[in-house]
Design goal:
By secondary structure, this protein is of the alpha/beta class. It is 48% helix and 22% strand. It has 7 helices and 6 strands, in the order ααββααββββααα. Strands 1, 2, 3, 4, 5 and 6 form a 6-stranded mixed beta sheet that branches. The chain is elongated. The chain starts with a helix and ends with a helix.
C-alpha cells in the first residue's frame, strides 16, 4: 500500500471513529419527540480501597486489613442506601438535563417515542491509592430504543464525587481513613450523597445525548 493510499485509509478510519459511532442516533433523534427512562435493578455496591504493592509481610498484613475494611464499608453502604431512591435521582437528573430538548424531551408517562435504558453496571466507593480519600462512583450504561424496539444509541458514563469530609492534613499526607469517614456518616448522609451523585450523573448523561444527537 502506497503512502498516499495509507494516508487516505487512515483518514477514512478517523472520520468513521469520530462520526460513525453515533451516526445512527443523529439520524433517529429528529424523529423522537419524547423519551421515558427505565433503570435496571442495581447490583450490590462495590468497594475498592487502595492496596500496597508489596509482597512482603507488611504488605500482606495491610492488604488483608484493607480487604476486611472493604467488606465493612460495603455492608455499611448497602444498609444505608435505598437503591430505588437512587434510581429515582438518576431519572430526575436525566429529566432535568433533557428538559424540553433538543434532541428530545423527557416524559414520566408510559407512552413515549423511545426509551432510555439506564443500567447501573457498577456503583459504590473507590480509593485508588492507600490513604487517598474515597470517591462515591457510578458506572452507567446508556441505551436508547425506539418504540419499535430498534436500538439507536449506546454509550457509557462514569461519575464520581469525593466521599466524607476528612481533615485537610490527612488529605495532604495521604492518610485518609475511609472506614472512619463512612462509619461516622449517618444513614441519611450516605443516602443523600449517593442520590446527589446519581442526579448529577443523570444530567451528565443527558448532556452527552445532546452532544451525540446534535
Amino acid at each position: 500500500m502506497s503512502g498516499l493510499t495509507l494516508r487516505a485509509a487512515l483518514a477514512v478510519l478517523f472520520a468513521l471513529s469520530v462520526t460513525g459511532c453515533h451516526a445512527k442516533f443523529k439520524k433517529a433523534a429528529p424523529g423522537i419527540d419524547q423519551v421515558r427512562t427505565q433503570t435496571y435493578a442495581m447490583t450490590p455496591p462495590h468497594v475498592f480501597l487502595g492496596k500496597m504493592v508489596d509482597d512482603g509481610p507488611v504488605g500482606i498484613i495491610v492488604n488483608v486489613a484493607q480487604g476486611v475494611n472493604e467488606v465493612a464499608i460495603r455492608r455499611r453502604i448497602q444498609d444505608a442506601v435505598d437503591r430505588e431512591d437512587v434510581a429515582t435521582a438518576l431519572h430526575k437528573g436525566v429529566a432535568e438535563g433533557l428538559g424540553d430538548g433538543p434532541p428530545f424531551s423527557w416524559t414520566a408517562g408510559r407512552e413515549a417515542d423511545a426509551t432510555v435504558q439506564l443500567e447501573v453496571a457498577n456503583w459504590g466507593l473507590e480509593a485508588y491509592t492507600l490513604g487517598a480519600q474515597g470517591r462515591f462512583t457510578y458506572d452507567v450504561r446508556v441505551r436508547v430504543y425506539t418504540a419499535s424496539g430498534k436500538r439507536v444509541y449506546s454509550a457509557r458514563t462514569n461519575c464520581d464525587s469525593m466521599a466524607g469530609d476528612p481533615h485537610e492534613l490527612s488529605q495532604a499526607l495521604g492518610l485518609v481513613s475511609n472506614v472512619d469517614q463512612i462509619m461516622e456518616m449517618e444513614d441519611h448522609e450516605i443516602q443523600a450523597a449517593f442520590e446527589e451523585v446519581a442526579r448529577w450523573c443523570g444530567m451528565e448523561i443527558a448532556m452527552k445525548m445532546r452532544q451525540h444527537g446534535g
